[in-house]
Amino acid sequence: MIEFDFAVLRRIGLNNSILAQLSMAEAAPGAQLMRLTEVQRDWQTVHDGQAEHRARALPRLLSSLQEQGSGLAVGDWVVVESHAHGELWISRRLSPFTHIARRANDGRRQPLASNIDTALLVMGLDNDFNPRRVERYIALVQAAEVAPVVVLSKTDLGIDVDNRIAELRQRLPSYIPIVAINSLSMMANTELKPWLGNGQTICLLGASGTGKSTLTNTLTSAHQETGGNRKSDGRGRHTTTARSLHICPDGGCIIDTPGLRTWRPDADGETLAATFDDIESLAAHCQFHDCRHEAEPGCAVREQIDPDRLLNYHKLLRDVQRSQQTPLDKISARAKWKVIIKAARTRGRDKRSV
Ligand SMILES: Nc1nc2c(ncn2[C@@H]2O[C@H](COP(=O)(O)OP(=O)(O)OP(=O)(O)O)[C@@H](O)[C@H]2O)c(=O)[nH]1
Ligand SMILES: [Zn+2]
Fold first, then answer.
1. 181 and 152 in contact (C-beta within 8 Å)?
2. Residue 106, in any domain of the structure
3. Structural domain span for residue 22
4. Is residue 105 part of a domain?
5. Is the ipTM above a cut-off of 0.85?
6. Is the dihedral of CA 289, 294, 297, 298 positive or negative?
7. Total-model pTM
8. Does the CB atom of residue 198 touch ligand 1 within 6 A?
9. pLDDT tens digits, residue range 199-251?
10. Ligand 1 centroid – CA 352 distance (Å)
11. Which residues bind Zn(2+) per the record (predicted)?
């Protein structure tokens, strides 16, 4: 039997999709369900809904995750066993319902965060305003099956808010919510309430200086120190504050880790096509089957899609194609170009000498 208090764990994001896995989980007596809030090489921090504890993962768990090409990430739900001397050991990871990973330079996938329902894509209405970047983030979080919400911050700066919202609204698919807020105002709580129900987990993504920390403070104002409830029940070492899990007093919790902060989006072509499905579905109506929506007559896409959104789509697709090349592909692509350029130069010389 795995012990847990639903109401307490719900504050840190427990939901039915995780619970459904528990009945099948074998565990030692007294094992507890907890949420991972920090992942280091040799140790982890887990949250039991009230306080954080230092724990370690069983080597067999780590190697089986590694075999699956996966690994522990902040936000994972784990089964924690208590061994002799109060040591806590993570024995099992429940399958995450969403998983954000980044591709490391060597091509491996590196887990960043698990079990996030909604990503707030924070963008300042000031100089930071950049629809292309938002489209890129949307593609990425959708690839992880996390729901995107575009949050335009700094409405108080007297920037032409309505026009900028209209510009984005016209450009993005209609199912993507756009919310404009002042991160410094408590009103932000009301505006973001739909994504902060009890049991919901959100994360904040966006460039530096857009107001992610400010907004996190506003949303969690009554609970700055989520793990601050010190317990001394002798199990594991307690830490006082949750560095990466913040509980919102009215429901919901926020995951904020250095990994997510420095995460720069990458995606594959299929994912991009899914995010730009407005373009893909219009393309079926172009006169030419292989229309590139550039100068072809009878193009259905150019008529309806914001030209910059179309440009961005093509640019992202090119990026994807490049990033999916292996080092060998890149070398052979470069070699091919060298041949082409050399041939063009030779042709140029031949023409001149005629
Ligand atoms: N006027 C105004 N200022 C804001 C708002 N949101 C954030 N700021 C200010 O913008 C600056 C940057 O905000 P942060 O919350 O630190 O931004 P961040 O996204 O967390 O930045 P990093 O930590 O670098 O990722 C701070 O000086 C904030 O006070 C807002 O809605 N209105
Ligand atoms: Zn076309």
1. yes
2. no
3. 6-97
4. no
5. yes
6. positive
7. 0.77
8. no
9. 999 999 988 888 999 999 999 985 343 333 334 443 444 444 457 899 998 89
10. 59
11. 286, 291, 293, 299
